[in-house]
Amino acid sequence: MSSFSFTIEAASRRTLSRAGIIETPHGLIRTPAFVPVATKATVKALTPEQVRELGAQVVLGNTYHLYLTPGTDVIRTAGGLSRFMNWEGPTMTDSGGFQVFSLGAAFGKRLSKFGSKGREKESISPDEEKAGRLAKVDEEGVTFRSHIDGSEHRFTPERSIEIQHNIGADIIFAFDECPSPEAKQDYQREAMERTHRWAKRSLIEHKKLGGKQSLFGIVQGGRFEDLRKESAKAIGAMDFDGFGIGGTFLKQDMGNAVRWVNEILPKEKPRHLLGIGEPMDMLEAIENGCDTFDCVAPTRMGRTGTLYTKKGKVNIGNARFASDLSPIEADCDCYTCKHFTCAYLHHLFDAKEMFAATLASIHNLRFLVRLVDEARISILKDTFEDFKQELLSTYLS
Amino acid sequence: MSSFSFTIEAASRRTLSRAGIIETPHGLIRTPAFVPVATKATVKALTPEQVRELGAQVVLGNTYHLYLTPGTDVIRTAGGLSRFMNWEGPTMTDSGGFQVFSLGAAFGKRLSKFGSKGREKESISPDEEKAGRLAKVDEEGVTFRSHIDGSEHRFTPERSIEIQHNIGADIIFAFDECPSPEAKQDYQREAMERTHRWAKRSLIEHKKLGGKQSLFGIVQGGRFEDLRKESAKAIGAMDFDGFGIGGTFLKQDMGNAVRWVNEILPKEKPRHLLGIGEPMDMLEAIENGCDTFDCVAPTRMGRTGTLYTKKGKVNIGNARFASDLSPIEADCDCYTCKHFTCAYLHHLFDAKEMFAATLASIHNLRFLVRLVDEARISILKDTFEDFKQELLSTYLS
Questions:
Q1: What part of A 214-233 touches B (C-beta under 8 Å)?
Q2: Domains within chain B, CATH numbers bracketed
Q3: pTM (2 d.p.)
């Protein structure tokens, strides 16, 4: 029934890096690939055509957010997420686990997916924090309150899968518990073991519901080597179509954690690293065997005027850009750099114009998509290490 | 030197309506034409390509706003407004008069350009109102404070023209005084006579500076027939390339006021009605001899979810749209209606997504541009009255 497949085109003999093609009912994903986030069925401030033109192959929606608004009925009736948002390509949804728990265990802590400074935050408003006090996990699932109206909801693995089937993305994820990075090892183990039981239940529900969607299991285990390896073995042994690597750990631990996991996960299935999108982090993850990545950072940073360049990030609000009639990067092939100057972008941000967010998001997404596409080409040519080294020598932040 | 011309292709024998072509250094404008407003060098939330695709031929920037931010230096250095904002077509700038005076005489009154309910407001924030207390007019010009930082500035006719030459739009306007609609007839006369003296000075400065821009003189006179006619005679006798009809008066007076003026203005020059864009108002103005119209209403209303349809305005936030999987209008040819449902738009507004503003603005602008284009075709076929009557019979608001 499923038209899902993963073909490895090239794999390094020195590292875990590989290039491949994921086939989905809505089209191909050439990997490694960066996946823009369309939290609420829109990549913020962009048309689907703009997302396509900047080279994105697939977008990821958030189950938690889409479940709350607009709700799954209308998305299902519209023909699923891709039809609803007019995205003519593959889609993913996360399991909702991260959002549900970031309103619970991480209450008041402004949890980052990888817990370190400078990385993308899941920002939590005071109202969300208040609601978060009421998120409770038990063996069956999680009861939580909506950050919108405080209403009570419950996700179980079965419910998350049912919701994701209604949303209808090509690649969906098993429901997992994502504990706070401050959680002690005892709790990390407890949460991981529950995640494994939930993974089984997610898989059973997914097979029961049928259809052409593919289910990825999520490896947890925080920053602990033994837990990560144990989780990779347990999840890797289950009949998933691919895997997600989830959880929160410190920036310096990310490469190791990913390697521990990917050395164990079955090679023939794709691996998605959840919530990661900083340039150097992605290269490290690619080196250690990850195939796809999603992150809200490029669009969220774009909306505040922080732009990627090969030399690191710049803030276009800086006064030095006010009269700079060159593009953000002379050799960038994005729509923004081809048509607009830094001075114009600076003005748009200064004047709080919405178009600023559009132009900055296009540039940032193109920067990451292109970076990962170039990494892919280097893997096909077996020159990935040189490619990474060259970038490391110039990238400053 | 000037590559400006206006050719009348067809003119009604029963009304003042006509169809024509304005030639500018940046291209043609087939009239009647609706002119989207790009206040701060961007049609809010849209790319220039989106503005072009929805059929707009020309955009209008605001001299007051562009003078304050980003300032004229960077726009001039960039090659002028069209190059700066990457709009490959004709541009206009207003004189700055309306904004300067709406912060002065209209202080605290939330002045509407045509002073009646349901029309586009120039919204004035408390800070602006405070600054407005300090706007002062004298024979030489106006001293006012920036609504951004309270700094003091002075516009004279010469300065407005100099600024507009630096901004570099194809069609620019003489500096005028736009009194409050509540101003008594005595003051209306005083302001009108000053506007005539300023018009002469604007024209002298414009010729002194040279170049390929075209200058339109502005007719004032409020809602008073004798003043409007006197102003049309005075301004119409000056060597302008075209004319603007400015000022504030009541909705029911608009058609009359425009007719009084256009019966007097020289037929062979184009007439721009400033700040008007409601569908029925435009048709009335076309019937009474206006060629072009600018208005922020379609984009401003779009950003709050108010959408034009042939049956009147609807608010997409209404609960009845939450599960409506049809487009806003089945026979609308805009990008939004071709690709997205009411349910999706409803969701985007509900979720406060920026993309909502983009899609709604595209629909509203396309609605007005198409309406005026259809009016043009009906004038060429000499069936304008039927066209207007048919629309009047269905349009409810």
A1: none
A2: 5-295 (3.20.20.105), 297-397 (no CATH)
A3: 0.93
